[in-house]
Structure formats: structure tokens, C-alpha cells
Structures
1.
Amino acid sequence: MARRGRLSAHVGDARSIWDRPGDRQNGFPDDGRGAGHNGPVLEMSREEFEELVGEALDRIPAELTRLMDNVAVFVEDEPPAGEPQLLGLYEGTPLTERGEWYAGVLPDRITIYRGPTLRMCDSREEVVEETEVTVVHEIAHHFGIDDARLHSLGYG
């Protein structure tokens, strides 16, 4: 899979909003940095986080990336207002829903959010793992896999 620019991997497409309800946030006090955090916010530059997302994309098996089509991957610092715990977002039309009508459309969009990921993780290793899980989760939506199935597979 080729990456373009800093991080705009044009690959597949999938629809998802993933905020890991009830996961790590349970049992952690809300100290103003968002649920799911229990200490100082981990420091990591935008460039370093983009590199982690790129590495997660590179670990997607080539058999899958060859099947992906018309999607761009982006990193943003924060999710949309009102969704402070959102780690990733897929916006587009999954492969399973595309038909003859699907032509000449803008790329679908996967966005991975740095801020919430750093606030919920306590170490760089956790950020690496959480980023990979989030990337896989969002890409799975490209293939038409819904949240219920992803949860049963351990990705959410």
C-alpha cells in the first residue's frame, strides 16, 4: 500500500464511529482530560503519531490492501465537538454497498484522532497498540464489517 504525502494513504473505504464505550473508561475518574485516563497526558508529536498510523497501515496484509479502493487516511488532533472520546471515524460507502452507480466519487475518509488516543493511554506501547486496533477497526468497516461483528472479534 502506498502512502501519499505525510499521511493520506489512498486505499479502501469503510463506515465507523468507534469510541470504545465501557472499555477502559470504566473505573477511571474523569479528571477533565476525558474518561478513560488516570494520570498525566502522554506526550507525542503529531508527526510521531502520524508515523504510528502509517506503520499500522503498513501492517495490514497485502491481500487486503489490494482489495481496498478509493479511501484516504488522515490524522487529526481532536474529534468533532461533542465526541471527545472518538478514536477513529470512517466516512464513506463500504465495498459491500457499492454498485454500478459508484463512480467518480470523492475518496472515502478514515480519520484517526490523536488527542483521545493519547489521553486514554498510559505508555507509548499502549498508543502503538490502540492505534493499530483503531486503524484495523476503521478499515474493517470498508469491507462492510459492522461494530457488533468487530466487537465479537475483539476490535471494539
2.
Amino acid sequence: MRKVILYISMSIDGFIATKQDNLDWLSIAEKEGEDYGYTEVYAEADTYLVGRKTYDVILSLTGGTLPQTENMNCYVFTREDRPAEKNLNFYNGPVEQLIKELRSQKGKNIVCDGGGEMVRSLMEKDLIDEYIISVIPTILGDGKRLFLGGINQLNVKAMPSKYYDTGVVQLHYKRQTT
């Protein structure tokens, strides 16, 4: 079965961006030749999920393109009706319906990449199979949280964490099955 994998970075205090959507703090962890497992995770995926606000931030950083559309089917969670583009779908239906549909199709894993509202909607329905969270060695003090709360308790199983010489700790959890 296709897995839904949250693959994301956050500060030690749980933020994925500043209040102004600034991501410059991520450069703390930049090191030539180190991608923190990005290549491996994305090689095993063919579908990308992102929230509309995060999508807008990505477009502002990349000059108006979503790089994942080059080789993946992408879904932007939005409240608006917008026409699809090449490998880019705008989705405003129930999240569980989309995940059920994607899982019923042959394919690779499904990677999601923020923001907090989209992550919460997936967590509310217990749709995330794996959490891979790279904790960047900084404390932002304020900003946009990864985990917004307001969900029922979810139990996960800890997998081996990875420690990098940049100070990044990559946490890895799998959904606890009963």
C-alpha cells in the first residue's frame, strides 16, 4: 500500500516558518553534499501534497514554479476551485477521500510538506503513515507551528533517529498499528 509520509523540517521549538513565512533560518543546516535523505524519500514517491499557503511561499521562493511538478503528481489543498495544470491539481474536497483515491491507485509513496493546517487535517483522520522531521538547531521563539493541536491522540512507533554533524536531528516515527 502507498504510504503517506510527512517529510518536513522544523525549529527546536516546533516552527516551520517565521510569522512572515521566512525560511532563511533553514540555511543553518546547509552543507554541501548533504540532503538529509531527501533524494531517498522522493525517489520512493510519485505524489506530493502541500497546503495552499505553503504552495504560495514555494512559488515566491522559486520564481513562480513548484519544482515537484517536474516529476510528480502534485496536489495543493485549497478552499478555492482552480483548474488543474500539468501535474498540478488544486483539491478542495475531504482529505480522506483524496488519500483513499490515491492509495487505491498503483504508484509510489505520497509525500506531504506542510503547512500546519494541512498536516492537522491529515492527522485528524490518522492518514499519515510516517513522520520524518528534521529538527534544525535553532529556536525561532515564534512563527508558524508544524503541529497546531486540536486532534485526538495518535500513537506512533519510534524508528532510529539520525544525527548529523550540522546539528540536525532527524526524527522518524511510524503510525502505531493496533
3.
Amino acid sequence: MQGTEKEYIQAREQRSKTLKKIMSLVGCVSFGGTALFGIGNMLKSAVQESPQVETAAVVSVEEQLQKTARGYESVLEREPENMTALEGLVKVRLEMGDKHGAIATLEKLVGLYPEREDYKVVLEQVRLEVEE
């Protein structure tokens, strides 16, 4: 009787080990497949969304520059000789590519502060760029 009991226990242990191996294999394959599927989707969406993200960033930069310019203009409505607002408006207009608007603002700065050589130099540089 002990022989059959021993055989039964060994057979049971063997089935248990085999079942554990099968379950481990199924788990590893499932995990690997899920990970590969997730990485594949992530790469696919990154490739597809790249142009949209760049366009949104460009639009938001342009909108931000316009918003900043409007802010400086509103300050200048209250304080037409505010040097900080005038300088900021020149910088923003140059970043936006509005060289004619920058020239008008620089001319005002040169008129208000004729002792400032840097304003005159920048005004001449922008005028030369417009003429080209």
C-alpha cells in the first residue's frame, strides 16, 4: 500500500510542477504580448501625432506673441511713454515678423530718448532689413 501511495504523491507532484510550468509560460507570453502591443500602439500614435503637436505649438506661440503685443499696447494706451512697454512691443513685433510696426515703435523710442544710441542702431538695422 505504501508503494501506491508514494507513486500517487509523486504523480501528483509531477502534475503540479507541469501545471506550474504551463501557467508560468502562459503568464509570460501574455505579459510579453501585452507589452509589445502597448509599445506598438505608443510608437504608432507618436508617429501620427508628431505633426499635430508641432502645429499646435506653433499656433500657440503665435497666439502668445499676439496676446503679449496686445498687453503692451494696452499699457501704452494708459502710459504712452512707458519705456518698458515700448521696448517689449518692439521685441514682440520683431519676433512676429512685423518689422514696419517695430520701426514705428522704435521711432517713438528714439524721439522720446534721443540720447540712447542703442535705439538708433536697432532702428537703422530694422530699416535696412525692410529695404532688402
4.
Amino acid sequence: MANSYTAITKQDGDWWIGWIEEIPGVNCQERSRRELLESLKIALREALEFNRQEAIRAAAADYTEESVTV
């Protein structure tokens, strides 16, 4: 199941800069809009996986996973 996130992008001089609105710290800078969107996807995947692993480590053993929809 794919989730959707919001990329905030803008051109600043010769560079494109962008952020993922819903996840603090996910931001990138590239020379083209296309490259920026691809970099944001990669950074978002990495951040989500890192956060997932951190949550699992914090829960230690004997945890459950629950789906939460907002």
C-alpha cells in the first residue's frame, strides 16, 4: 500500500529546493525539479525506515504493530 506525502518545492537561483511537509528533516536540493523529486522520494524512504527501526528498538521485545489511519 502506497502512502502519499506532500512535497513543497521551489526554485532558488540555479537550484531546486524541497521539503516533505509531513516529515520534519526530509529536505533536498538539486539542479532540476525532476532530480529534486527523486531525491525527496529516496530521503523520505530512508527517513521512514530509520524511524521504523528506531521505534522497534525502543519497544524492545514483545511489541505489536497496529495500523493507524488519520
